[in-house]
């Protein structure tokens, strides 16, 4: 993870609950610096605590500012989130594109920020003009109003995803381990032997196809040592041993 | 967009507000089929409506089931979301990986589902065992408890992102258009001329570097027609014309 993380800035947030939920969302992805511009109901907020799931006390102390200009004065690169296209000549990023761009700045030790507007109205154009770029979340065009904390969550999620090495797909095998080919073959040979004893393969012509079909089930499943042992037990049980 | 979309299934959801918020989150990304297993406070729920921002009435009618097995009976591929690793031999996906996998199934006209557990406890192992795969959201290991609707949001977001063609970065130029090179050159030549008249280039040695530095500001900004006109006005104003 980079040492410099984006700061989250909420402009004119109304409900303390939303500030708390936003804090929880950003901290779920490791962000810990939250700034507020002109929060309607003041700060600190008891309502925020009801929704933060303990995030605020784990983060840096929240700082409150009168204007967005003051809140971002020490930052080098700032992204404004907005749903509506603005008549402003600005780079527009998806959340993923914005996360990549933010990384290019943090990798150069620049301080970055992501700005969110008030619950109902979003950011005003003068605030957006202060920012270097816009991030817009691609969404259902017929239902594009996001909860404030949800918007914060997505931007924080994409930031962390940029810096996360978790493979998209793994096989969780717990204490077990994928079976080696020979263990798999041993089981399949035994199964074939027992099936053959009981006349399962009605004709010799059908045998290769049936064997292949059965094999594919277990190979495709990525069968483990433990499962091979379980299957041996299943066969033993079925044949009455 | 594919014609088949994943169904969202909430198991043992407690608060109606969370069901409403989950509906809003999924519908933000175009999902419209929600199923509930054994909702604690029953269904329909007035509390859900307070948090859905109108999503529920735009979606398919919510269906309620007694068990997860019944709720997913007609589906072909089902992903369980869980934060904790389970001692179960299962493929584990990131949200992005799960979205890719879901797509491979929906592209084959299979019906898919994404299952979420109750707010506090998540899914029980018997419910997870019914599912083909697990999705786990990579997050801050010290603060990994997600709000239910937030987890729904991320899975729905990744599903839509798979099917969305929005470029990661565009330049929003509104009604304007990037300036052609010759308009840019014309402005830079005029600027150089006026600067030269006023002795801006103190030495001939410094001139090429200064010209290049000034040029880079405007080229890097991807200056538009409208902005070139504005800049001509700025220069005219500064020289007192």
The count of domains of chain A is 2
Q: CATH homologous superfamily of the largest domain in chain A?
A: SPOUT methyltransferase, trefoil knot domain
Taking the alpha carbons of the first and last residues of chain A, their distance comes to: 56 Å
CATH-defined topology of the largest domain in chain A: Alpha/beta knot
Give the biggest beta sheet of chain A.
7 strands, parallel
Tell me, rounded to a whole number, the average pLDDT of chain A: 92
Report strand % of chain A: 5-15%
Q: What is the helix tally of chain A?
A: 10
What can you see in these coordinates?
The structure is a homodimer of 241-residue chains. The model of chain A has no long low-confidence stretch (mean pLDDT 92). In chain A, 43% of the residues lie in helices and 14% in strands. Chain A folds into two domains: 7-163, Alpha/beta knot (3-Layer(aba) Sandwich), CATH 3.40.1280.10; 181-239, no CATH class. The two termini of chain A are 56 Å apart. In chain A, strand 1, helix 1 and strand 2 (34-37) form a beta-alpha-beta unit. In chain A, helix 5 packs across helix 7 (148-162). The first copy, chain A, has helices at residues 16-28, 46-51, 55-58, 68-71, 95-106, 125-129, 148-162, 181-197, 207-220, 225-238, and strands at 7-11, 34-37, 63-65, 77-81, 90-93, 112-116, 133-135, 169-172. Chain A has ten helices and eight strands. A seven-stranded parallel β-sheet of chain A has the order 3-2-1-6-4-7-5. With 241 residues, chain A is an alpha/beta fold.
